[in-house]
Amino acid sequence: MSIQEQSVDRKTGIKKGKYIHLAFIAPHLLIFIIFICVPIIFGIYISFTKWDLIGQPIWVGLDNYKEILLNTESTFNRQFFDGIKNTLLFVVFNVPLCIAVPLAFALVLHMRPYGSKLFQSVLYLPTLFSVSSVGLIWMQLLNRRFGLASLMGAKVQWATNMPHAWVALMVMTVWWTMGSNMVIYQAALGGVSKELYEAADIDGANWIDKFLKITLPSIRFQLLYTLVITIAGSFNVYGQPTIMTRVDPAASPAIKVLVYYIRGIAFGSGQSAAGIASAMAVVLGIFITVVSVFQFKLIRSEDE
User: Fold this and answer.
1) 167-178 residue pLDDT tens
2) The pTM is what?
């Protein structure tokens, strides 16, 4: 900071330039407040109302939460718990794959085989695609009439039959999201000291021992970070199952996740029950927050 900026205003007694940093963060803070904070607050308010998106919201207190959580005869209750179950299944199956598969590719590319830069670019490329593009690409590939599945002699309707629909959903998601975690792991592996591996070689350690006792502990913070963002993203899954159900309207309800039901209740099927949908979204948000806080506390305890 210059001498002029450090000088003190005689009238206010405040150093000139003391709050200049606010000018740099103000645009981002304004966008965050308008597009993040305000919608969250408004969504929480709507969850306590009955609203059809047209008229004035009518305050109903906790009735929406009782409807989705306690009223077992309600269609909304069934949709909520079906959506939660399907979302949890997606998280349980998807998160380990989205951690293990990128880590495996990162380990192979870390050994710098021939063409490693090319393969790195090819593997990262799907991350740049939109979810609609990814969904349509894979639905065409898995089409049993003219897609890749037809060339392999497959007679399965991947978007409808179970558990094939889950397999298609997992493959699609891992292929699309693998690049981001892979790059993080590659950077982390590059920071592991080679002296540790050399010492392990002298002690006669095999590759499994080196992976478990050197590699994983050395990149544990990156693993925990990607675990947090992958779990949060998996709970908010919407695009992939939606594309599958749009391509094939008869797609099994087993792949309809909670966000899919929330969108349908709020804007589709003529229900326009925005209060019910908001209540579902708030419950999902609370669940994601609790899981994320637990994971961040785990990261902090590991750091200490």
Assistant:
1) 888 888 999 999
2) 0.82
